[in-house]
Amino acid sequence: MAVSPRSVYDPLSRAFHWLTAAAVLAAFVLGPEHFGRQMHDGLDPATRWDIVTHESLGVLVFVLTLLRLVWVALRPARPRFEMAGWMSAVSHLVHGLLWLLMLAVPVTAMLALGSEGHPLTLLGGLRVNEMPFIAQSALAPMADWGEVHGLLGDIILNLAGLHAAAAIYHHLVLKDGVLRAMAPRG
Q1: Which residues does the UniProt record annotate as the domain Cytochrome b561 bacterial/Ni-hydrogenase (predicted)?
Q2: 4 located within any domain
Q3: Residue range of the domain that includes 25
Q4: Most buried of the four, 88, 160, 164, 171, by CB within 10 Å?
Q5: Would the pTM count as exceeding 0.70?
């Protein structure tokens, strides 16, 4: 049973949550395999709708996450639910990791593109051909940022699946209103 008088998140928090979830999932599905190798072989990313859409969704995830962080600081109190201490601790850990990954995955994509000299191509024809501030940074040579990006993308999707499974468990087994608190309103 909910402890706070609010039993649901505010509409803007719910909208941010579901838009971000949809963008992360779509970006993962559209994530081109072996993109870096294809770029080295001369592929122009603007010729591939999946690459353009993937990169555009990545920028959207980053912007939505920044806006969400601002909203978290300003929004009304969120609902709070009674749960076992271990459950609360795991919930906080998973949420914290998801927030971190929603920032880190797009950042590692930019590091990969900039350090390898690939353009950023977005819907609407927007293109950034060179990112010397990344290519010349101390971070550029520290890792294979494309590999890091791919690994973090896999982790965020798996963690989001765990997050969704926990919400379904709360709904079907515990019947405590956790899923309803974030569910879109019809």
Answers
A1: 8-184
A2: no
A3: 11-182
A4: 160
A5: yes
